[in-house]
Amino acid sequence: MPIVKFAPFASLVQPVFWHELTTLKIDVLRLSDEALPITGSYSVGRSVTDKETGNEIALGCNLSVGPESFDKSGQPSPGAFLAKGHFKNYNTIEEFRAADKTALFNQEAEKMWEAIIATRDTSSLSNFLLITYADLKKYKYYYWFAFPAFVAKPAWEIDELGWKTASEGLTNDSLSSIHGQLRANPLPFFLVRASGEIAPVESYSTFFANVPPAEQTIGFVDPSAHPTNPGWPLRNLLAYLHALYPATTAQLRVLCWRDAEIPATPTGWKSRVGALHCKPAAAGARPSAVGWEKNPQGKLAPRVADLAPMMDPKRLADQAVDLNLKLMRWRILPALDLEKISSTKCLLLGAGTLGCYVARTLMGWGVRDITLVDSGRVSFSNPVRQPLFEFEDCVDGGKPKAECAAARMKKIFPGINATGHTLSIPMPGHPVPPASVAQAKEDVRKLEELIEAHDAVFLLMDSRESRWLPTVICAAKGKIVLNAALGFDTFLVMRHGVRASSVRPEATQLGCYYCNDIVAPADSLTDRTLDEMCTVTRPGLASIAASTAVELLAAVLQHPDGHHAAAPAPNSDPAQLVGAGVLGLVPHQLRGFLAQFRNLHIVGAAYGRCTGCSEAVLRAYETQGFDMILQALNDDKFLQKLTGLDQLYAEGEKALEDVDWDVEDDGEDF
Amino acid sequence: MPIVKFAPFASLVQPVFWHELTTLKIDVLRLSDEALPITGSYSVGRSVTDKETGNEIALGCNLSVGPESFDKSGQPSPGAFLAKGHFKNYNTIEEFRAADKTALFNQEAEKMWEAIIATRDTSSLSNFLLITYADLKKYKYYYWFAFPAFVAKPAWEIDELGWKTASEGLTNDSLSSIHGQLRANPLPFFLVRASGEIAPVESYSTFFANVPPAEQTIGFVDPSAHPTNPGWPLRNLLAYLHALYPATTAQLRVLCWRDAEIPATPTGWKSRVGALHCKPAAAGARPSAVGWEKNPQGKLAPRVADLAPMMDPKRLADQAVDLNLKLMRWRILPALDLEKISSTKCLLLGAGTLGCYVARTLMGWGVRDITLVDSGRVSFSNPVRQPLFEFEDCVDGGKPKAECAAARMKKIFPGINATGHTLSIPMPGHPVPPASVAQAKEDVRKLEELIEAHDAVFLLMDSRESRWLPTVICAAKGKIVLNAALGFDTFLVMRHGVRASSVRPEATQLGCYYCNDIVAPADSLTDRTLDEMCTVTRPGLASIAASTAVELLAAVLQHPDGHHAAAPAPNSDPAQLVGAGVLGLVPHQLRGFLAQFRNLHIVGAAYGRCTGCSEAVLRAYETQGFDMILQALNDDKFLQKLTGLDQLYAEGEKALEDVDWDVEDDGEDF
């Protein structure tokens, strides 16, 4: 008598499964290679009719996984049946290759066997195993499915009639009834009485209690559409019955359920029936199992899904950038709040050497909203020092720097939201002629609007006085301010303090850029020699200062107190990260000395007569708005009067008349 | 009787004059605005015949300056006559505008008058004055010429016949003779006897001693071709004669010499003669002078030469980049040897985050020869961190990194000589299969060739073992080695020591990257998890480390001892730049800690059993070449045996068996 042959499961992986795995790996699993439950699903086997020959061609006996496979509460879609699996993702290709597949397989088979014996539960009969290695740098996924199936010894045989269409074994009414019941209550394995009434296999003892053997049918949802080979689930169902009911299952009538729909004609049922028999095996012992899936070349080896070619390059870039950042959380800094950094909207005032490097480092941190402001055009000396410009941007008078930088950022990373604005920032000491007042007012309004719309503002201009107006507006609006300024081989990077009224009263307010000054910012641009007009700095200085400023912002954002965080004492033990956040210290001011390759930490308290951040200045700005600003621009005594610096200066002059002066001017822009 | 009218000088500036001024300003003058002598030249006035009307049209009465004007030993070209000038270049447009032009002018006129009275020398009669302001950022040159001319009061008059052609006053033979004499001995001002014999004006008393007044003629080379207005030089010549010989110069016959060539016909002479007379002025007093040149709009105001539109953009870029660097020497570091840096040929092993930033900073220093080596292709995560790549470089599998980076550098600065090589550097711990030996040999040969052809080599790879082979080759060849390696928020930047045999014997040899190790470099790449495969670092770290490495190279190149310089003691007073060069300290190793924003200075001596730079290794490499390398690649015990590390290790194991270990692994790549 012919031995029953089975169609093994074939894995069908929807591409979105890999995307889901990628996310899971990066955000949740990280370095874990623990085995996790997943689910797959299968449906009744389908076949298509070859239009030329009229032959039925069976489609694959598929077990499918998709994005829902990782969802613990996930239900199969209508008409699909759940298979439970275990999935294990290795960290390296070497571990994946070296994995002890026999042990893994036997472990899974053992679990399935135990579930049968211990709980008489059929829900493990289609269990599967999936091992993977995801090369997320190249979007290549190595994977291998195993569908453990217990081997019957001796094998099951089918009577000489073989597999017949279902209508030869059951009435049309019974089959229609089965169809209806499965639709209402999907059972992958079921018992059938002659009437067509079905019940879970688990109720074998009771449901068939008074039913003559000839009217007992064992049914299962058959993912195979092969005319003579029922699908893999039958193999384990037979092992189940044979193990639990050895006395009554030497002969079985089996229904391979293959009808998703009721056929148009009573003889059109695709399901099949057959009479199987088998000598009982040695009771109790777990039969051996087989089931590693072969690859498309027919070998017992893993498969590879290469998703790179089918992915949208822009999406690839998006994910790749995220990946590099999220990897930080895998091992080194699980507490790092990347979103806090990447969602910070940054305004860069100045798109020169500092501005370009700051923008690049912000992009590296995944910051998505970056706005640049500059009033200049790209000149021929820029590209070798300002890493968002190229030679072609300089010809014909040069492109506007801010817009050009933003356009380049999009070329670097299409996912960025970068914009550039050509805007002159009004400056104290540079009086506004009456004809230009309306323009100045509009420039101020635009600057206020831009600052309002951002969270952090970088002051990256090349003059002292251009930093005044944004300093005042940011202080009034409570924005985070990062300030960077370059000398020849020295730099200053600092964060401005937060207005006292918004800080806990006991905390010392940190100073701003102007807090050390006893004169108001004034015109330093007119009457400059060429070496004063150009940025004469050691070429490596700007990138160091710019990256330091961005990393200071990152550290501040990761500190529990944010930009309200107190500054660490400048002379504290360097190794003791006192007052540090997740990323480390949040100093107030850093002065870098390239000739020594050292940084000096400085803490400076806010100054009550500061022309940039004192209450007198902020209140005057808040109450008088542009009128106050215009006075500050036009009248070089205004800010000194407003803050009382003039009085201090007069007193000081008197007191110091007899002092010997040894004034040193280091020519730096800070 | 008609008053004599004069054609004033018109300045004619050859564009090359401005290029010469630019070079002079940047390289020599720098911040100096001292008045300097220059020269100009003029020729006989020329006219052209209008073909339609047959009228003669006089061309300008030009005084021309060109590149030779700054050359102190410069001689005028044949047929041209020298004018002496003083030139003053201001540092700022404001100083240029505010200059006291009256004082400057009077000073020059005073000098001219003193020269006349004191030395009777005619060589100052065409003196001129030029003040300039050169905006070298925009290639705009503001300038103003003054051609001081003494005003005769009362004015000179000409008899009723006016100016006649020369042939009406002198014979053809005389005129031909004058032409010949002037060609042989160019005299801008001369005396003529009736015979045509000429002499310098300085010999007035003797040459005309016995000549009847009617046969005395005063000649001058006339830059004017105007029919009735002789050129400006005559004005000062008349003032000269009138001042020195008042008694005999109330009436003068004047020859305006305008013939560069002997005419085809005896009546074709273009020179003119006229009979002038004037009442003597008050003796001794300097007459007033006029002579600031009007601008093309007819106003007494400076002119502007805008050279930007006519310059080749690539040349503009070239000069702009140089300018920014040379400005360092103006004020801050006159001793800086820029050429030493810019002429250093740099080889960058690794074109990733570090490689791209190093390349950019080298470009900022004006380095012209940069070669990159990498074996990878640009991937989607690169552009936001690696500043020589863009999104478009990643699609379709990615461009080769080294070549792509080199191409981008040319887009940034067309004057750069950048090349990229795709090359895998063989590594210890990564055995070479027999089939790949030929390829490995070729790779080693290529690497040796590249190192040989460069002066400084940067090790910027992302693994420990890939640095070994270049460390050995560079040590053997005595190249400068800069090494940069990144952790998550820490970096190492160091210069390798120079081989002991090439250093002064008493100096301590500084260590290389491997000198602290007691195990040979081995495979660290296989079996890596995703976060170990990707560079997981704070995004600002690479640019800081890269720029620090380049600035360390710059400091080393400016140190009198070059890369033989001893390292400063790590705990020396930071403010004391002991052992510093022009750019400051030349530390051996810098460890940067971004969580603290601090750098630590470390000095490490070379280790006699080092697998990278010890004599045992270098001699084995020098004697056995590729065979030795192949052993090191294939046999992971080879280097430890060669250096004696194995023996040390065995002894150490024994000695330390009872020690409690508390090993800390910080997962950093150094």
Automatic annotation (TrEMBL), chains A, B:
Domain THIF-type NAD/FAD binding fold: 328-562
InterPro entries xref list: Atg7, Atg7_N, Atg7_N_1, Atg7_N_2, ThiF/MoeB/HesA, ThiF_NAD_FAD-bd, Ubiquitin-activating_enz
Keyword Protein transport: yes
UniProt keyword list: Autophagy, Cytoplasm, Protein transport, Transport, Ubl conjugation pathway
Signal peptide interval: none
Localization in the cell: Cytoplasm; Preautophagosomal structure
UniProt domain Ubiquitin-like modifier-activating enzyme Atg7 N-terminal: residue ranges: 4-311
GO cellular component terms, A-Z: phagophore assembly site
Molecular function (Gene Ontology), one example: Atg12 activating enzyme activity
Primary location: cytoplasm
Catalytic residues as annotated in Swiss-Prot or TrEMBL: 534 (glycyl thioester intermediate)
A GO biological process held by the record: piecemeal microautophagy of the nucleus
Keyword Cytoplasm part of the UniProt annotation: yes
Protein role: E1-like activating enzyme involved in the 2 ubiquitin-like systems required for cytoplasm to vacuole transport (Cvt) and autophagy. Activates ATG12 for its conjugation with ATG5 and ATG8 for its conjugation with phosphatidylethanolamine. Both systems are needed for the ATG8 association to Cvt vesicles and autophagosomes membranes. Autophagy is essential for maintenance of amino acid levels and protein synthesis under nitrogen starvation.
Family: Belongs to the ATG7 family.
PANTHER family reported in the protein's UniProt record: UBIQUITIN-ACTIVATING ENZYME E1 (PTHR10953), UBIQUITIN-LIKE MODIFIER-ACTIVATING ENZYME ATG7 (PTHR10953:SF3)
Assembly, per entry: Homodimer.
Protein name: Ubiquitin-like modifier-activating enzyme ATG7
Organism whose genome encodes this protein: Mycena maculata
